[in-house]
Structures are given as structure tokens and as C-alpha cells.
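Worked example 2:
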Amino acid sequence: MLGKNRSKKERRGLSNIVGSLLMIVLTIVAALLLGHFAFGLFSSNSHNAQISLSDISVLNPGGTATNASVTVTVTNTGNDPVNITLVTVGGQTLYKSSANSYIILQPGQSHTFVSSTIQTNPGGGNPTLNVGSTIVVQVTATDIVTKQTLATQATTVVQD
């Protein structure tokens, strides 16, 4: 009889340990699932497409050139790839995508647009790229994943 009592206690003790471990594991799994849905702990399920402009320069040597030199760097600062569709400087097109020509930036990538053909006096009207004048640089892109249109702009001063 003494042997039977001992084995019942051992079984009872073993069941308590297994039950406690099972409760701890279930609690951890429930906490991880709750954290996943509430805070996105496992991965970022959100699509954050964003572009930024840097290293913008517009040079009109002597203030009398017919074409200005332009440099614009576009960076994909989001977590989705983007397709650059349009870059304008002072209302003039520096780059426009087409079916045969397009630029895709992966997250973290940059592309620098360089041109020396932006007219300083388009259409023969008032000059728009006078030295010292402030102009707007605009970039439009499309988020490849969500098809959302993005746009950003910055201003710069035309340098000599």
C-alpha cells in the first residue's frame, strides 16, 4: 500500500508541473498574438511610401545663359518601392516616365537627375530662372504596391 500512495503523489506532482508549464506556454503565446495584432511586433504590415528631395541645385552661369544646369536627388524613404513619374523644375519638365522609360526606387535607394537643358526663358516671356530667384522643384511618384500617388516639393534659389 505504501507503494501505491507514493506513485499517486508522484503522478499528482507531475500533473501539477505539466499543467503549470502548459499554462505558462499558453500565456506567452496569447501575449505574442495580442502584441502582434495590437503593435505589429512580428512585422510591419503597413505600407509607408515616401519620397524626399535633397542636393537640389539650379545654376545659371552669369545669369545670362539660355539653359540652366539642374541637379535633383530623389530618395525613397518609405518601405515600398516607388516609380518616379514626373520631376519638374520651375514648372518645366526635367523627367517624365513613359512605357519605355521609367525609374523604380527600392526602399532606401536614391536617384540623381542631372540636366543642362532647362530653359531660363521658356516661351520668350519673363525669365523664370534669374539668378537669386526662388523656384519650386516637384516630384511625383507612384507606390508600386498600393498604387498610391505620392508628391513632394522643395524650393531652391537659382545660383550663379
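The helical segments are 2-39. The chain has two domains: 1-45, 51-157.
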